[in-house]
Amino acid sequence: MACGCGYSWFGLALLPNVGFRMRTRQECLTVLAEAAGATKDHRRQLEALIELLAYVGLIRIEGDQVTAVKPLNQQRTEPNTAEAPQVPQVPTPVARAQPATLPGQIAFSVSVNISMADVATLAPEKITEFFNGIAAVMKVQAEIEKNKSGGGP
After folding, report:
1. CA-CA distance, 37 to 55, in Å (whole number)?
2. CB within 8 Å of 97: residues ≥ 6 apart
3. In this structure, are residues 118 and 127 in contact, taking their beta carbons and an 8 Å threshold?
4. How far is CA 24 from each of CA 15, 18, 66, 79, 119, rounded to the nearest angstrom?
5. What secondary structure letter does DSSP report for 81?
6. How far is CA 87 from CA 29, 45, 84, in A?
7. Which of 69, 41, 37 is nearest to 56 (CA)?
8. Residue 41's closest CA among 120, 98, 142?
9. If DSSP codes are grouped into helix, strand and coil, which group holds residue 98?
10. Are 55 and 12 a contacting pair, CB within 8 Å?
11. Quick check: helix, strand or coil at residue 61?
12. What is the pTM (predicted TM-score) of this model?
């Protein structure tokens, strides 16, 4: 679930811990497990969350050590595209009536609910595919919004 600041629950749990000093992967897994109330059975999913934070450029993994890309006191709630990779923000889903589609427009809404139990059945490469698919959709939406605001293609 997003907090409105651009970070997910796992980002909010882990970034303060790695923002001040390096942590081991095991320490990071413990932080996430405590935040989620997860058990040892969820280790693969928690590892995938750490990999996701590295993939989007919020943390760096070097061997067994994990650290924030920037110290916590220099992180912003809105990424500066000149300094860091753009991290798309996920809006918090809200139930509402959809406006009528105007001619020349497409309107659709997608809601995905997946439990940790379901994720536990997936191979690591399938988890990566899942997040890559979400990232691709969010990238297209960000490009459309950028074009609307005059940012160009």
Report:
1. 24
2. none
3. no
4. 13, 9, 6, 25, 24
5. T
6. 22, 21, 9
7. 69
8. 120
9. coil
10. no
11. strand
12. 0.47
Give the sign of the dihedral formed by CA 61, CA 51, CA 6, CA 20: negative
Q: Which amino acid type is present at position 147?
A: N
DSSP H or E run through 13: helix 9-19
CB burial of 97-133 (b: ≥16 within 10 Å; e: otherwise) equals: eeeeeeeeeeeeeeeeeeeeeebeebeeeebeeeeee
Angle at 79 between CA 43 and CA 7, to 5 degrees: 35
Query: Is there a contact between 81 and 142 (Cβ–Cβ < 8 Å)?
Result: no
Burial (Cβ within 10 Å: 0-12, 13-18, ≥19) of residue 4: exposed
pLDDT in tens, the chain (153 residues): 444 455 688 888 898 889 888 999 999 999 999 998 999 899 999 999 999 888 888 899 999 999 988 754 454 444 444 454 444 444 444 444 445 556 666 666 667 777 777 777 878 888 888 888 877 877 887 888 788 877 665
Tokens of 43: 């280790």
